[in-house]
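Protein modeling request. Please complete all fields; requests missing the sequence field cannot be processed.
Requester role: graduate student
Desired output: 3D structure, token encoding
Chains: 1
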Amino acid sequence: MTRIYIPSSEPDDWRQFLAEPQTQWQTGYSAKSLAYSWEEADGFPEEIETALADPDIAALNDTTPLLIIPEHKVPLPGGRTESQNDVFVLGSTESGLVSICVEGKVEESFGEPVSKWGPDSSAGKRKRFDYLVGLLELEGEDLSDIYYQLLHRTASAIIEAKRFHAATAAMLVHSFSQEHKWFPEFRDFAGKLGVEAELNKVHSCGERSGIDLYTGWIVGDAQYLTR
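Delivered output (227 residues):
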């Protein structure tokens, strides 16, 4: 994992960091919509700033972005593939640092549910799954219908919180789908963390592996679907 980051000057600078730049960088898709939204905001997009100001989540109020890193890779045990988070934010609050991983969406799914794994799944994949379950303190939960991407994106926020000595972490879905596609699947995942997810609201999931964890689904501005 590199420790050197290059500042961006425009949304197109984000393209080079995509896993598949030729296919993922298209108008109406999450990568491009997310890049334009965040670049033009020069900080948190308005809808995310509003959600973080909710008095119900006082620990995240007045979060100031210190670093915003596109396509941030977080190593996980059990294999060589890292969790590539669409946006990573290291933020500052009155009480300390906060680690925020953001997953951008439009029509794209969260990959496959755990139930799609066959009996011949590799030992490394199982090791990684067990690690994620332990980190999120979801032992004993039936996760067969939960989408695997949601597990490792949320775990990434906790991992980076520990790396930067932050007491707080959040995994936010920033979706530009005006029909809220895949929200039910996110809601099922949030339920496993003990919360009833609502649109445009960030919820506390309690303490997970010593980190105060939050999650939420924020609806992006539809104008970025045509940029």
